[in-house]
Amino acid sequence: MIGVTNNEPPEFSRIFDIEDLPDEVLEVDISATESERQALAIRFDLLSLDSLQAHLVLSNPGNKGDVKLSATFSAEVTQSCVVTLKPVADRVEGLFSCRFSEQVTEVKEEILEISVGDEAPPEPITNGKFDVGEIVIEHFGLELPPFPRQPGVDFDEIKNKIKAIGGQENTDNPFAVLKKLK
Predict the structure, then answer these.
(1) Which helix (H) or strand (E) holds 165?
(2) What are the residue ranges in the chain where pLDDT is below 50?
């Protein structure tokens, strides 16, 4: 699983036992505790993670060795604006599906080539158990805005103000403005 080494427990773990699943569909709502949200905020370099919840639909169509997960999630996050470094509050939402299988015998670190239309390889079921929490968190991380900005903040406008203060020469050098102040 991405982001967690074998020595570290995941920040958000929700383990299911395949024997406890009904033959058809199980719907479950999960949410992160305060301590889990704090740990996830550190992992994803967030100022805060105020809420995180997911709705899971687990289906086990008569095959106890294979489980399909469909999930939706939402979270309230606060990140730093990449331009001003001021807090930016946002709602992150997503949906995904994946499979878990007992047929996955070993998790290998290898490079897989997957085309857009290809189905991702299944996640492992080990000793009859599988963790949906880390999968939810991996997809949450993919949905986080990579360059959060406060509404109305324009990087070019700020760059032009810096040029106006520091003059036009060597404005590509980050120390040019400081040199002018000297």
Answers:
(1) helix 155-166
(2) 1-5
**70 CB-side CA count, 13 A:** 6
Euclidean distance between CA atoms 146 and 111, whole angstroms: 24
Question: Distance between alpha carbon 146 and the CA centroid of its chain, in Å?
Answer: 11
Q: What residue type is 176 in one-letter code? A: A
Task: Please name which of 6, 10, 21, 49 lies closest in space to residue 131, comparing C-alpha atoms.
Answer: 10
| pLDDT of res. 103 | 82
180 torsion bin: left (phi>0), alpha (psi -120 to 50), beta (else): alpha
**Structure confidence by residue, pLDDT tens digits, 128-145:** 899 999 999 999 999 999
Distance between CA atoms of residues 35 and 9, nearest Å: 13
- Sole residue written with tokens 């490079």: 111
Give the separation between CA 101 and CA 30, rounded to whole angstroms: 22
